[in-house]
Amino acid sequence: MIKYTFMKLKHFQPWKIICLQFVVQIAIFTLPRFDVEKECSKIDEDYKEKTVVNNKAHLSKIETRLDTAGLTEKEKDFLATREKEKGNEAFNSGDYEEAVMYYTRSISVLPSVAAYNNRAQAELKLQSWNSAFRDCEKVLELEPGNIKALLRRATTYKHQNKLQEAIEDLNKVLDVEPHNELAKKTLSEVERDLKNSEPASKTQVKGKRMVIQEVENSEDEGGKDHGRKHEDGSGDKSKTSFLF
């Protein structure tokens, strides 16, 4: 075919070849241009949608409760730890729904502070404020004063506009860890939100009282985390690392 075309072109007169080249150039420039970035973006979006659908289908087939009949306490401890570690892996990969599922499996085998706390963190990522709140409550029931649970419960309060409750939890954290940067940052945000939500007259009165208090004061001027025995660290060196 190529040879035949070449032979035909050899018999074309020069002016015909020039005209043919001109027509080809016009055709090329008038064709819609192929936007590579746009097409790649479409492919990425399609892939993400299919991945989400496949992941949800996969999760729906996995049991959230494990049968522990006949298992010894040591075997339960091992199984619960394994499921929790799977949850940590999913969390670190950004698969928060999968993380919640594995933490739930761990809790079904052997409830622990670590699993409840980690599930609360995954639920915060999913903006499931009520579920996260319930898990924080469970942690604090098992271990009153747990720093991570107080921080996470404060976050749920903040997003549910329960600002005063959030401040109380954050102050409890700062009483124990005065230099906790996350608690200080969140407290600053909550206090700003509270101030913005107050009527102007109340804000002015509060401002005057604060000034008076500051003047009076100026005259006088001169976790460790605990849980079940199978809890482990996530590698974060700070006292308030995200996962156990």
Automatic annotation (TrEMBL):
<keyword id="KW-0963">Cytoplasm</keyword>
<dbReference type="GO" id="GO:0005829">
    <property type="term" value="C:cytosol"/>
</dbReference>
<keyword id="KW-0802">TPR repeat</keyword>
<keyword id="KW-0677">Repeat</keyword>
<dbReference type="GO" id="GO:0006626">
    <property type="term" value="P:protein targeting to mitochondrion"/>
</dbReference>
<dbReference type="Pfam" id="PF13181">
    <property type="entry name" value="TPR_8"/>
</dbReference>
<dbReference type="GO" id="GO:0005739">
    <property type="term" value="C:mitochondrion"/>
</dbReference>
<feature type="repeat" description="TPR">
    <location>
        <begin position="147"/>
        <end position="180"/>
    </location>
</feature>
<dbReference type="InterPro" id="IPR011990">
    <property type="entry name" value="TPR-like_helical_dom_sf"/>
</dbReference>
<feature type="repeat" description="TPR">
    <location>
        <begin position="80"/>
        <end position="113"/>
    </location>
</feature>
<dbReference type="GO" id="GO:0031072">
    <property type="term" value="F:heat shock protein binding"/>
</dbReference>
<dbReference type="InterPro" id="IPR051982">
    <property type="entry name" value="CiliaryAsmbly_MitoImport"/>
</dbReference>
<dbReference type="InterPro" id="IPR019734">
    <property type="entry name" value="TPR_rpt"/>
</dbReference>
<feature type="region of interest" description="Disordered">
    <location>
        <begin position="190"/>
        <end position="244"/>
    </location>
</feature>
<protein>
    <submittedName>
        <fullName>Sperm-associated antigen 1</fullName>
    </submittedName>
</protein>
<dbReference type="Pfam" id="PF00515">
    <property type="entry name" value="TPR_1"/>
</dbReference>
<feature type="compositionally biased region" description="Basic and acidic residues">
    <location>
        <begin position="221"/>
        <end position="244"/>
    </location>
</feature>
